[in-house]
């Protein structure tokens, strides 16, 4: 049965966030180095982006490199940075022609210069696109983001630009690297791990979680559709009781 045809287009998540996990295990299962899995994972990114666009998902956030990932073996980190540069440089025209806007979240200042330049260029080129925004979480850590937002707000209070008592969720939202991006309705994690690993801690307060054993390089469009169908079967109550939810 065609999964796409089962999807309810009146209930598509506006924002889907994905913890792309399992590249290393996928490669090792096939007797290859971990980087082989990362390379292959790029194909899944293309697929999922295509699927997201078919579903008219407005924002797709992919957790590509966490702040903790710097502690991996040097050659894996270098290989990942290299892959990032090559992929962005190679895909930017394709993204642009499809109306996709590239954005990043995280502490991108901490990325190597080559990555920063390639990202800056791709972000500029695609900045006017309105189809789907592809948001890469790079050198991302939710705790860093929350601390950073807290410092930004504290500075404004000290300077007298805002009143302490006026700090609310909207002000906090605006100080995060996801300012302007709505919270994800759906968070997907691949590879059978059931944890959040320092991803979007503030923003996932009411997200629906979807876990799958599929390793990221095996995750294809159909897997995205499965996740969205599962999401559509949930009742999001936001603390209310079922009878209060008008469908
Ligand atoms: C996810 O795959 C990609 C990154 C974290 C960059 P992993 O590299 O974590 O793969 P596993 O979890 O070790 O299999
Ligand atoms: C989370 O995956 C980070 C990314 C997908 C970039 P990890 O593989 O780094 O997370 P842990 O180590 O399983 O928590
Ligand atoms: Mg992993």
Helix content range: 40-55%
List the ions, cofactors and other small molecules found in this model: 3-methylbut-3-enyl trihydrogen diphosphate, magnesium ion
In one word, what is the shape?
globular
Structural class: alpha/beta
- Estimate what percentage of residues fall within beta strands: 5-15%
Helices, by number, come to 8
Low-confidence stretches: none
- The rounded Rg comes to 19 Å
List the helices and strands and how they pair.
Elements (H helix, E strand, L loop, with lengths): L2 H4 L8 E5 L3 H7 L4 H21 L4 E8 L7 H24 L2 E6 L7 H13 L6 E9 L1 H17 L10 H7 L10 E4 L18 E4 L9 H12 L15
Parallel strand pairs: 1-2, 1-5, 2-4, 3-4, 5-6
The structure holds 3-methylbut-3-enyl trihydrogen diphosphate (2 copies) and magnesium ion.
Fold and architecture overview:
The model has no long low-confidence stretch (mean pLDDT 97). By secondary structure, the protein is of the alpha/beta class. The longest helix has 24 residues, at 74-97. Helix 3 (34-54) packs across helix 8 (221-232) and helix 6 packs across helix 7 (169-175). The protein has a single domain, classed as Decaprenyl diphosphate synthase-like (Undecaprenyl pyrophosphate synthetase, 3-Layer(aba) Sandwich). Helices cover 43% and strands 15% of the residues. Bound molecules: 3-methylbut-3-enyl trihydrogen diphosphate (IPE) (2 copies) and magnesium ion (MG). The site of one 3-methylbut-3-enyl trihydrogen diphosphate has 11 residues, from helix 2.
């Amino acid at each position: 049965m065609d999964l796409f045809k089962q999807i309810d287009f009146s209930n598509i998540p506006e924002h889907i966030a994905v913890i792309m996990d399992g590249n290393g295990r996928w490669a090792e299962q096939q007797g290859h180095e971990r980087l082989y899995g990362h390379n292959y994972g790029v194909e899944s990114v293309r697929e999922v982006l295509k699927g997201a666009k078919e579903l008219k998902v407005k924002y797709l956030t992919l957790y590509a490199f966490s702040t903790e990932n710097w502690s991996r073996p040097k050659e894996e980190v270098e290989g990942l940075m290299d892959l990032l540069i090559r992929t962005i440089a190679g895909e930017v025209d394709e993204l642009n022609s499809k109306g996709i806007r590239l954005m990043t979240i995280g502490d991108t200042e901490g990325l190597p210069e080559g990555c920063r330049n390639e990202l800056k260029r791709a972000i500029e080129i695609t900045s006017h696109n309105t189809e789907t925004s592809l948001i890469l979480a790079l050198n991302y850590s939710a705790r860093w983001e929350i601390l950073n937002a807290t410092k930004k707000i504290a500075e404004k209070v000290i300077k007298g630009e805002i009143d302490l008592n006026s700090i609310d969720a909207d002000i906090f939202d605006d100080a995060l690297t996801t300012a302007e991006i709505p919270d994800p309705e759906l968070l997907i994690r691949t590879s059978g791990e059931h944890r959040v690993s320092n991803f979007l801690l503030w923003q996932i307060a009411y997200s629906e979680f979807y876990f799958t054993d599929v390793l990221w390089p095996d995750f294809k469009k159909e897997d995205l559709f499965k996740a969205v169908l599962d999401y559509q079967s949930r009742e999001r109550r936001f603390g209310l009781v079922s009878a209060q939810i008008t469908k």
